[in-house]
Amino acid sequence: MADKQKLGRKEPRGQKKLSDGAVAGFDSWLENKLRTAYSSVLDEPIPEDLIQLLSQKLKD
Predict the structure, then answer these.
(1) What spatial distance separates the first Cα and last Cα of the chain, rounded to whole Å?
(2) The pTM is what?
């Protein structure tokens, strides 16, 4: 399992690990910060012209 660990990422001491090997403290903190910062933007509706553009691109 140690072979599958991402290079360049070191675990801080004293942090609990999740079952998938991620560091629980930092991941939770980052998720909460991103949710707080961008939740209002994610709640906005997608413009109709953008939906049409994406639909056309998927058909191609």
Answers:
(1) 41
(2) 0.39
Buried b (16+ CB within 10 A) or exposed e, 16-49: eeeeeeebeeeeeeeeeeeeeeeeeeeeeeeeee
Please state, in angstroms and rounded to a whole number, the distance separating the CA atoms of residues 9 and 7: 6
CA distances from 20 to 6, 7, 13 (A): 12, 15, 17
pLDDT digits (tens, 9 = 90+) for 38-47: 999 989 999 9
What sign for the dihedral angle of Cα 37, 43, 45, 50? positive
